[in-house]
Fold this sequence. Notes:
Two copies of one chain form a homodimer. The first copy, chain A, has 15 helices and 25 strands. Chain A has 540 residues and is α/β, with parallel strands linked by helices. In chain A, helix 7 (201-212) crosses helix 8 and helix 9 (259-268) crosses helix 10 (278-291). Chain A is globular. The mean pLDDT of chain A is 94. Chains A and B meet through helix 1, strand 9 and helix 7 of A and helix 1, strand 9 and helix 7 of B.
Amino acid sequence: MLGLMQNDPTSLISMLIHAARWHGAQDIVTRSVEGPVRRQSYAETLDRATRLASRLRDFGVASGDRIGTLAWNTDRHLETWYAVSGQGAVCHTINPRLFPEQIRYIVDHAEDRLIFVDLTFVELLAGLLPELPKIEAVVVMTDRQHMPDTTAFPCPAYCYETFLAEGTNDYDWPILDHDTASSLCYTSGTTGNPKGVLYSHRANLLHAYASCMPDVFDLSATDSILMVVPMFHANSWGLAYAGPLTGAKLVLPGPHLDGASIHQLISAEQVTRAAAVPTVWSTLLTYMDESGQGIDTLEELVVGGAAVPRSMIEAFDRRYGIKVTHAWGMTEMTPIGTVNRPTSRSHALDGEELLDLRCKQGRVPYGVDMQLVDDDGNVLPHDGKAFGRLLVKGPWTIASYYKAPESALEDGWFDTGDIATIDADGFMQITDRSKDVIKSGGEWISSVEVENAAMGIPGVRMAACIGARHRKWGERPVLLVVGDERATLSREAMLPHLANSLAKWQLPDAVIEVEDIPLTAAGKIDKKQLRQKYRDCLSD
Amino acid sequence: MLGLMQNDPTSLISMLIHAARWHGAQDIVTRSVEGPVRRQSYAETLDRATRLASRLRDFGVASGDRIGTLAWNTDRHLETWYAVSGQGAVCHTINPRLFPEQIRYIVDHAEDRLIFVDLTFVELLAGLLPELPKIEAVVVMTDRQHMPDTTAFPCPAYCYETFLAEGTNDYDWPILDHDTASSLCYTSGTTGNPKGVLYSHRANLLHAYASCMPDVFDLSATDSILMVVPMFHANSWGLAYAGPLTGAKLVLPGPHLDGASIHQLISAEQVTRAAAVPTVWSTLLTYMDESGQGIDTLEELVVGGAAVPRSMIEAFDRRYGIKVTHAWGMTEMTPIGTVNRPTSRSHALDGEELLDLRCKQGRVPYGVDMQLVDDDGNVLPHDGKAFGRLLVKGPWTIASYYKAPESALEDGWFDTGDIATIDADGFMQITDRSKDVIKSGGEWISSVEVENAAMGIPGVRMAACIGARHRKWGERPVLLVVGDERATLSREAMLPHLANSLAKWQLPDAVIEVEDIPLTAAGKIDKKQLRQKYRDCLSD
């Protein structure tokens, strides 16, 4: 028997309609690509998104078509984001920080018909266009006055403001099935081609509600949210939905991510909550320390995308009274996986114990389930010690990749590629990537733990730990270090230090001093390259 | 094109599974019908709900079957609630405060196969059973030791604990379509038979997420929630879902709703948030004032079901530092309609202005839309002055009543039966019921406003205002008053007082002093009866 409630499908455009109707005068503030700060209400934003949707329809964009964006977080990007998915098409946010060849692959694979591009990336795109014959037109996200020369483009190029002005706000948003695709975001693994995650309206809707809960991002109409996390990066952590859903002020930094710009925007717009990767906050912290300026209104920084250094949590808290909250997610999870929020039990902790806890990635909201398994698929206990492959599932977790017929799941679970522990209160902590963990006999050694131990030794500037082949143990850890001039980084000199925080069987079999450690495009240690070079250094 | 996320249907049992898995040790605390306080974890609760579901399956309960409950808020009621809907059957919570004839009608109309009944209501049910031949069995929600004599019942009667113990926890919850009916709750209008609202898993799921948001009930894992609002009354405002969803402690008062019991439970269980109708909180306030005992942990009382007196908001706030938050909803809305939460603009108010605002019913969360219309269906402005019929819609608003083929909607909107205003910030305030508003010429006069004005006059103990037929104006207000011994309640004596807060055209054409004013079963003024008696008092 079916219930008798109104079960009309709920399209994501309904969030912007809600905001325009109930928080119509609330601002979306953008530090524009062109420079000046722009201020636009939710009511205006809906009006403009509606015009854009009608213009896209007139262009011939149909349900399911992919429309690419190469853009910063701005009001125009937000309008495009809502117009495209509201229309039944798919908003494909492209990460401009990828290698050009990856961008070309992604646009081609997605079969984007149109690309919306910020001024910043026009040159990048222009270089790729000759190899992207499926692109029918480019829309440059600026006004007439700032329109660059596009005469050399192999396809038509429109000025965003002109394009939008040709639309009408007399447009009926279509009724879309709950599971209609809304948006597309590619993940760039270290191996193979990037893979597309195709979000649905339903997944984003549930995720958006969950994201506002006190135990997730804790958002309300009185908040002013600085959305540093890019819309092209893991679905902007859902904040591009949570803003309109709650009626909060949305503050969009455009391309201006330096400490001074971020600080100025937070102060001027009385930002209460902000979300970004750790590097942005460490830049801000440096700026605040050097300029001697605090921030009054800011209650919380949500940090994800990489592990947060304990020192950063401590510094923001003690020096500025700002709470740094650790979150973890993945593009494949829309992206919220866990947030570090207290339980009744952990609520009582303080001092070092609390800091230890706050360094963990956190606990799942309703809508995410997770478990740890060993290499044989045995489920591991939640004791804070056992570590294994982290598997996840739920209504906003991926089922399969775009254009990949095979399921992305094993027995209904998605393998995150992370190695983690989960404690008795449900707090998860990532200890390594599964491809980096060192399998020594029956035991796993976390490469990150060895690196952290090494980084604590005076004179060590950089450290990387990989597994090298070993006749008896299968693999054993090898540590590569970059030292400052005066350091003596022999194995003999380092072992006593390392033994302070590592067990005997976790100690590296070799320590190799190197000039430099190679990094990936994303700024992480390129362990793939290191493994190729040092994999056999123990077997000679 | 469909998204590629995991779109497995999400049954409501997943909330209890989440709680058992991630907040397994968290308590559900019940002041039992038998007397003692019982403490049971979420893990135990899931185990018991699973056993109950398996036992119901063995009994022959099938998908879509209606299972009635006549019960207080207790752990056993919560287990039944989850077991029944998780199994694909429909949990029909029956309001024991209705007239016996209405209960008989409801149980018969719902075709309940089984009734779960608290000790308190065994006698009531026993009296009705001879007229309810479709009931196949009764389960008395107690243990062996407290089992009453049921030998006279015309059907088998089980002891709950014995019944449950015959189940197994080796039971697979079925996969249910999103729109599967989960539960049934009848509304008792003042005219006609009660009407059934058939909730779906999807509506309850979205509603549950929304209910936890900071701008709704603001619930997290560290909360201890006192759920006074009955599960048989408007879906317990969704709190029976929000508790497990967040992992909060749930505190269930059973039948013990007096001031001392409520105060004791709040103190002992360190309750942070509580929800009930105003009468419960006014009883608590009286108890606190008389006993001189405050409550440390309590942050907020959410009040709905009737307008909250301004004096109550003030008293809790000033005397005890407890925030009283006004909410409004309907059984037909699962039930959340509005909650009085600040916007960026209203945030700045204080003193009397803030109190005025907090007396309003509040604003809609995403998931509810509302509008005001006049008698001709014209949409009225949100200016805080224009008042009209309040219409609502959204994914947790009713589409049609149970077994009523016709739609409950007009053009997609549900008429709440209330007359309200909405101000520029979206705050809605109910001014009257639409059947009570007095239509004088083209103008509407709020019967409630006239009553409030009258109640402010010394010597008036009770006041009721109805519309009487009028040759020229269609209707004109007539005021009925009950005075204390010394009062002179003639029209002439009262008009100058009334004119302080009412416009001239709103003043009653007649004031009639009466001995008593009739009340309905729910304790509200029985205006239907008054209208029958006084409808023609102006036309003679």
